[in-house]
């Protein structure tokens, strides 16, 4: 299955469909085998991490996220994939054997159980990972959204035959990430892992193109313009330490040609454009191809 391993979750803003564009912008040092350390501080679905691990050699890899259940799931796949697969198969068999109304009852029961508990710091839980993956695979559009209390609040999707346990992919992913350190923490926690010949890719929550597009919260903490500016300052700090840095974000010029927000906070860096299909939008007319930004502190050709 080498070369075909996929993210184990659906993830809003996931980079799977953009890999054939993004990987053109990887630093030449990575392609030539001179990057020793790869860090991804907003790992999400991990499409770029998976792509790099499958196609390039790095001695060390670190992945961070402020979604504790996501990090727990990565660590369970890495260390306890057999038990996870067993539990997911049970969930899949139970759920797919129900009619539509009983599926709703089942889904919301799992969601209530999921929301009634929290992981302790550094706790690993196969049960929690099972619930997380089940909800992701059966909820509307694979969204992960929480309210201000941190409760997952996405409704059930309308899939006829969702794949809840992708056994082969989980086993291959488990092998691939065996040497990756997954950590629950914010992007600044990545600082302690930086060394010589490091490449960092940032894929933060995107700056909304308009008010109505700002509906997805991955954690109860808000990622607003001030947080974007803080990240840009950290980006400059890394640049001053000779780290190769790449960052994705929305392109505000899709809706406002005069919006120079990213041009200003990333002044002096190389701002490239890639093109993505907007897959999640309440208005079907808004699901066309739009420009996204890919900002690098290095020449990539």
Could you write a compact summary of the structure shown?
By secondary structure, this protein is α/β, with parallel strands linked by helices.
Written overview of the protein:
Helix content is 35%, strand content 14%. By secondary structure, it is of the alpha/beta class. Strands 3-2-1-4-5-7-6 form a 7-stranded mixed β-sheet, with helices on both faces. Helix 3 links the parallel strand 1 and strand 2. It is globular. The model has no long low-confidence stretch (mean pLDDT 91).
* Annotation, overall tally of beta strands: 7
Give the topology string: H per helix, E per strand.
Answer: HHEHEHHHHHEEHEHEE
Alpha carbon gap, first and last residue: 30 Å
- Most strands sheet: 7 strands, mixed
What is the overall number of helices? 10
Helix/strand layout:
Blueprint: H1 19-22, H2 28-31, E1 37-40, H3 47-55, E2 60-65, H4 68-79, H5 81-96, H6 100-115, H7 126-138, H8 167-176, E3 180-184, E4 198-202, H9 225-240, E5 244-250, H10 261-265, E6 270-277, E7 289-296
Parallel strand pairs: 1-2, 1-4, 2-3, 4-5
Antiparallel strand pairs: 5-7, 6-7
Helix pairs in contact: 4-7, 5-7, 6-7
List the keywords.
7 strands; 7-stranded mixed beta sheet; 301 residues; globular; alpha/beta
């Amino acid at each position: 299955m080498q070369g075909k391993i996929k993210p184990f979750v659906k993830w809003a803003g996931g980079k799977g469909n953009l890999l054939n564009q993004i990987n053109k912008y990887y630093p030449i040092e990575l392609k030539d085998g001179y990057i020793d350390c790869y860090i991804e501080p907003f790992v999400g679905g991990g499409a770029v991490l998976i792509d790099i691990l499958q196609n390039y050699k790095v001695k060390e890899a670190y992945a961070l996220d402020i979604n504790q259940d996501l990090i727990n799931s990565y660590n369970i796949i890495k260390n306890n994939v057999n038990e996870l697969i067993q539990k997911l198969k049970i969930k899949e068999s139970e759920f797919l054997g129900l009619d539509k109304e009983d599926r709703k009852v089942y889904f919301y029961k799992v969601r209530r159980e999921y929301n009634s508990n929290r992981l302790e710091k550094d706790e690993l839980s196969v049960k929690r990972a099972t619930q997380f993956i089940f909800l992701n695979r059966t909820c509307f559009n694979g969204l992960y959204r929480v309210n201000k209390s941190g409760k997952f609040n996405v409704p059930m999707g309308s899939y006829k035959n969702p794949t809840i346990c992708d056994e082969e992919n989980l086993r291959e992913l488990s092998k691939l990430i065996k040497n990756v350190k997954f950590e629950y923490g914010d992007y600044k926690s990545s600082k302690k892992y930086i060394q010589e010949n490091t490449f960092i890719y940032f894929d933060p929550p995107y700056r909304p193109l308009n008010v109505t597009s700002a509906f997805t919260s991955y954690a109860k903490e808000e990622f607003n313009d001030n947080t974007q500016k803080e990240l840009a300052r950290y980006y400059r700090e890394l640049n001053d330490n000779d780290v190769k840095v790449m960052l994705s974000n929305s392109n505000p010029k899709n809706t406002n040609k005069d919006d120079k927000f990213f041009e200003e906070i990333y002044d002096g860096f190389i701002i490239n454009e890639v093109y993505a299909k907007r897959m999640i939008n309440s208005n079907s007319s808004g699901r066309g191809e739009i420009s996204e930004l890919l900002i690098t502190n290095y020449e990539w050709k």
